[in-house]
Design goal:
Blueprint: H1 5-9, H2 17-28, H3 36-49, E1 53-57, H4 63-71, E2 76-81, H5 84-96, E3 103-107, E4 124-127, H6 134-141, E5 150-153, H7 174-188, E6 193-198, E7 204-209
Parallel strand pairs: 1-2, 1-4, 2-3, 4-5
Antiparallel strand pairs: 5-7, 6-7
Helix pairs in contact: 3-4
Subunit structure: Homodimer.
Protein name: tRNA 5-hydroxyuridine methyltransferase
Enzyme class: transferase
Length: 210
């Protein structure tokens, strides 16, 4: 039985004026941010895990970083974004938030960031950047997560494209979808992680490090 959109929407948590402004900005400027039901679910799992330090790959305009910081009042968040314009907006929005002191924005390509310059460990890593690079992101940043830590990966549905026959996927997105499928097969067989897929928002993969 499928749940109605109205019923699902009834679980969405209220947001403050700044968050609503950011949601409007993202819609008007075509900036991808996490779906409301998805970020609420992620935050609830994060509350259970209660990580002290979170690394986010893919800041966009800072929406999910602010949401995570609000949900976890004792957390510190480092977030990486390569798009200079998005970094500019993210820093402005974060500066206006009540959690600005706990969020650090690093401008740069996540695949080129010097890992040694970051904290030696993070309790959680949230990956929400270039979908075709998920395995590379995972391989680069998972060593920073200790045993018992968690990596969260958003957009596993890829707006429904990941569930299509490859012939139905637009040609320009086929390489990305193939990479996403390859990453899925790889992580599900990885001996160091217990992974589970949650059909929430645009699809959330949760990987617990053994």
């Amino acid at each position: 039985m499928e749940l109605s959109d109205t019923y699902i929407a009834s679980f969405i948590q209220p947001r403050n004026e700044l968050l609503q402004e950011m949601e409007k900005f993202a819609e008007e400027h075509h900036v991808p941010i996490m779906q409301l039901i998805g970020i609420d679910a992620l935050n609830q799992v994060l509350r259970i895990q209660n990580p002290a330090k979170i690394l986010e790959i893919g800041t966009a305009i800072g929406y999910s970083a602010i949401r995570m910081a609000l949900a976890l009042p004792n957390s510190q968040i480092v977030t990486v974004e390569r798009d200079a314009e998005r970094v500019h907006h993210a820093r402005n929005f974060i500066r206006r938030s009540e959690v600005a002191a706990r969020i650090e924005v690093i401008e740069g390509d996540a695949l080129e960031v010097d890992v040694a310059a970051l904290s030696p460990t993070f309790d959680a890593v949230f990956i929400d950047a270039a979908k075709g690079q998920y395995q590379k992101f995972f391989e680069k940043y998972s060593p920073l997560v200790p045993s018992g830590g968690v990596l969260y990966i958003d957009n596993m549905y890829m707006h429904g494209l990941s569930d299509l026959d490859m012939k139905e996927v637009p040609r320009r997105k086929r390489t990305m979808i193939r990479n996403l499928h390859s990453f899925t097969d790889w992580i599900l067989q990885h001996p160091d992680y217990t992974s589970a897929f949650f059909p929430i928002g645009d699809g959330l993969l949760i990987c617990l490090k053994r």
